[in-house]
Amino acid sequence: MIKITLPDGAVREYAPGITALEIAKSISEGLARKVLAANVNGQVWDATRPIKKDAALKLLTWDDKDGKTTFWHSSAHLMAEAVESLFPGVKFWVGPALTKEGEKGFYYDMDLGGTKISEEDLRKLEKKMNELAKSGSNYIRKEIPKAEALQYFSGKGDEYKLDLLQGLQDGEITFYSQGNFTDLCRGPHIPHTGFIKAIKLTNIAGAYWKNDEKNKMLTRVYGVTFPSQKELDEYLLLLEEAKKRDHRKLGKELGIYTMDDDVGPGLIMWLPNGTIIIEELENLAKETEHAAGYKRVITPHIAKESMYLTSGHLPYYAESMYPPMELEGEKYYLKSMNCPHHHKIFAAEPKSYRDLPYRIAEYGTVYRYEQSGELFGLMRVRCLHMNDAHIYCTKEQFEAEFRAVNEMYIKYFKIFGIDKYVMRLSLHSPEKLGQKYVNEPELWKETEEMVRQVLISSEIPYMEVQDEAAFYGPKIDVQIYSVIGREFTLATNQVDFSQGRSFKLQYTTADNQSDTPLIIHRAPLGTHERFIGFLLEHYAGKLPVWLSPLQVKILPISDKFLDYAQSILQKLKNYDIRAEVDDRQEKIGKKIRDTELSRVPYMLVVGEKEMTENKVAVRRQGRGDLGAKTVDDFINEINIEIKERTAE
RNA sequence: GCCGUUGUAGCUCAGUGGUAGAGCACUUCCUUGGUAAGGAAGAGGUCGUGAGUUCGAUUCUCAUCAACGGCUCCA
Q1: So what's the ipTM on this one?
Q2: Domain tally for chain A?
Q3: Which residue has the least CA–C1' distance to nucleotide B70?
Q4: Has residue A543 been placed in a domain?
C-alpha cells in the first residue's frame, strides 16, 4: 500500500498504481466529476496517471489556476483535432494555455501551408470542436522512446515536432492522444473532452516561429473555453465592459485627444479637454519637483548628429529615431531622449561637489520612430512628452537620491490611487554586452547590486527581469496593464554609469580632484500620453475633480433661472473652478442625464427654491442628489477637494 | 516591419452594380418643465485615397493610407 497525503494533512492508504481520479471517487463522486488534474508532489499530473509511490496529492478543479491551465491546454489539443479534420496536412508547433495575468484561454501555432483561414472557418472549427467535445474522448498519455517519436514525425514530414524533439531526452518523451489526434506533448491533460462545454475561438493572428522575426510566420488561432456556457457568456460580457473603459474610446468620448491621417500615425493632438489634464499633471510635477530640489530647464527638439554619437544613441538606437534632416551640411535628429541635452546643461558651467546633487527637470518632447504595427492609442505613440529629470550625483549620494526618486513614485501613486503595479528591476544580459548594452561588465554588476540594495532596504516588493535594462544602465520599471491586458512601463527610474563619461561630465571634488558624476534618469509620471491613457482606464473616465476638464455644470431648471446660473458661474470662475451653464431649452431630467453621461463630477441644479435661498442643489456624478448648500459652502468644499487632489 | 480584419454623416451602425439610410448629436420653432431621454421641422456624406473592370462603381479587382487584433519590437 502507498500513503497519500491530502492538503488537509489527512493520510489515506491505497494500492500502488491508483490514480488521482480514483482517489477522488473514493472521497466523493461529486468531487470526482470535477477533477481536471492533480498536483502530485508539487508537479501537475493527469488525474488518470497511476501513482506508484507515497505522495502528497492535491486534486485540481476549475477553481485552481493549474486546473484552468490544464483545461485550456487540453482545449488547444481539441482545437488542433478540429483543425486537422478540416485542414488535412496541417503541421502544428505549440499550443499552450495563456498564463499571463488576467489572460484566459489558449492558442495553437500552426503551419497551414499557404491555406488562409478566415473568421468563417473559426465558426466551423467551433462547431467541429463542440462535436468532438460531446464525444467525450479520453486524453491518453503514452511514453514513447525517442527513436520511435523521431520516426513517427519524420514519417509525417513534420519539421516542427522534429525540432521540438531535438531538445528532448530519451525517456522524457510523451504523446497524448484524444479521438483521432495525437500530439507530442508534455501534458498534463484533463481526463476527457466532455469537460469542455463552451467554446469560442477569438481570433486569428500571425506569429513568428520561435518568436523570431527572421523565421517563418505561422498561423496562430486564439480561443477560450469554459466548463459551462454561463461562464463563457460572463467572460464575453466582461470583455465588452472592458472595451467601454478603453482609453481610446474614452479619449474620443471625453474630447481628450485626436489623431489625423494628414498629421501622421502615432502623433497625438491634445484637444482642449486633454490639455487641461496635461496642465494639471504638470502643475503637480512642478510642485513636487520644486519641493524635492529640482530645477526646471527647457531644451530644443532637435540636435546634431555629433551629440547622438557621443551619447551612444546612434550606435545603439538609430533604428528607433526618425531619420535625420540635413541643413548646412550637418545632420540633425529629432531627439528620442532628453538626456543628452540635459548633460549639455550640466556641462554648461563648471561644477563642484557643492553643486551636487544637481537635479534638472523638463517635460521634454521626444520623438521615437516606433514600428507602425506597434502604435496603440495613447499608450504607444511617436511623439511623447516625458516627465523627465536627470540627477547628477556622487557615488556616495547615489543611494539617497535613488531612494528619494522611489519615494516620489509612491507619493504620486497614492495621489492617483494606483495600487496594482509591479516594480521591476530590469537587468542587462551579459551576452548582449557591446550590442544592446554598453560594454562595461564590472560597472553593470556593481550598479545592479546598488539598485537591488535600495529596493531591499526600502522593503519595496519587486521582481527581477533579465535583458530589460537601458543601454546605459539598470533600471526600475513600474509595469501596468491596459484594460485589454497589454503590459506597459508606466514609470521608470534608471541608473546611468555610462553617459557621464561619454559626455566627459566632471565636477571638482572636495580634495580638488576631478570626478564623473553618476546620473539618474527618472520619469515617475512616465509620459503624458501613456499616463493619461492609463488614468482614463484607471478611473473609467471618471476623473477626480482636480483633473476633470469640466468640474461643475450648472443646470437651471428653466430659462427663468439663467441669470442666477450665470451669477454662480461667475463666482466659480473667480476661484478658477472650471464650470459651464447648461443653457439649452431642455428639461432638467435631460440635462442631468447628459451631464451624468459626460462624467462631469458636480452638477448644480438651480431653480426657484435655490434662487430665493441663494443656494445650489448639489448633485455628484454617479451618486445622485446631495442636497442644497449655499454657494459659498459649495465653493469651499470643492476648493478643498481640488487643492488636496482628492483621489475620487 | 510581419500575419489577419476593417474603413459609409460629428458618434454608433445598416445598406446597394444605377451617385445613400437609421438612432444619437447639431440648427430652428413649440414647450418653461424639479433630479438619468418633452414634441416638431431642418441641415449634414464625391461611401478612406488612387487606379482598373463596366454603359455605369460606394458596391467587383488591384494598389495605397490609416485604424483594429496578434507577432516582433519597446532607450
Answers
A1: 0.93
A2: 4
A3: A205
A4: no
